[in-house]
Amino acid sequence: MIVVAGEALIDLVPLVPDGSGEALPALLPRRGGGPYNTAVALGRLGGPAAFCSRVSADGFGEALLTGLRSAGVDVSLVRRGPEPTTLAVADVGADGSAGYAFYAEGTADRLFELPGPLPEAVSALCLGTCALVLEPGASAYEALLRREAERGVFTLLDPNIRAGLIPDADAYRARFRRWLPHVTLLKLSEEDARWLGGSPAEWLAEGPAAVVITHGAAGLSVHTRDGLRHTAPAPPVEVVDTIGAGDTVNAALLHGLATCGALSREALTTVAWPALLHFAARAAALTCSRPGAEPPWATELAL
After folding, report:
1. Count of C-beta atoms within a 10 Å radius of residue 302
2. Phi and psi at residue 174, in whole multiples of 5°?
3. Which CA distances in Å does 50 have to 25, 45, 76, 185?
4. Which of 22, 65, 126, 297 is the most exposed place for a label (fewest CB within 10 A)?
């Protein structure tokens, strides 16, 4: 089983202008949050997946759990709280890229606490995005990463930087470096890489066995500790928006590695990376072809 830990929130996505002359666009609520999207994508791909978080008991929280269950995701590791659900207002650019303004003060997911030991059946843990920024939950998620890595669980970290939520950039960059010894696979976007500073070679030297970088319309690349570098182009697609594309890549990578029995540090040097990157690129392209974070089902990716 693959566990995804982190926030679940509601994205408020602008609707296409209706020509009415209104100054403010209508906003459509959609289930979201980087870790949440990754868990849903994993469930839709068909492998055993679970979500670990703290979710509000409000109506939005109920909708988030419904989305997980509908995708076949185990929610037994989810705890509930009376606080409201975090909201993220998306600003979608002409090229489909999205920026976010967050309303996260006093929300349920920020109060996440370190759970007891994860089930023995857990083979991988995926974390990232706001969960590793917003305290007090961030320290609990960090402790979860360290604890599970120390007992040999495969770990994927996707920083998925939301700069507006990070009060001290230098402190966050230093904290990111302290996570790396506990990370098996580091995945980040080209933009995240620039913001964090450093290079794949530097990050690999500090812990991960492989680093995957997404390059938007230019596709994906991977760097491994043995010096190999592979790339895969992004399939041509009419982009509606890019919400959830990177999260879908996380899920596709983990699903592909699990399917071929390669969820280990050693296996990342021998896995068929070109095929895995192509699979992830196809999955992300489908997500980009529809509004909001709507990752594909396994049947949509069948050859």
Report:
1. 6
2. -65, -40
3. 35, 13, 8, 19
4. 22
d(CA 234, CA 215): 9
User: Element (H or E) spanning 200, and its range?
Assistant: helix 200-205
Radius of gyration over every alpha carbon of the chain, rounded to an integer in angstroms: 18
Tell me if residue 105 falls in helix, strand or coil: coil
List all residues 6 or more positions away from 144 whose beta carbon is below 8 Å from its beta carbon.
5, 52, 114, 115, 125, 127
- What is the spatial distance between Cα 283 and Cα 273, in angstroms, rounded to a whole number? 15
**Nearest by Cα to 279 from 262, 264, 265:** 262
pLDDT in tens, 234-261: 999 998 888 899 999 999 999 999 999 9
Bridge partner list, 231:
221
Strand order in the sheet with 9-14: 27-32, 9-14, 87-92, 98-103
Partners of 100 in beta bridges: 90
- The C-alpha atoms of residue 212 and residue 185 are separated, in whole angstroms, by 8
- Quick: pLDDT tens for 256-279: 999 999 999 999 988 999 999 999
Residue among 66, 120, 111, 57 at smallest CA distance from 84: 57
Q: Where are the alpha helices (DSSP H) in 46-162?
A: 59-70, 137-150
Fill in the amino acid letter for 8.
A
Q: Which stretches within 51-107 are classed as H helix?
A: 59-70
Q: Is the pLDDT of residue 174 over 60?
A: yes
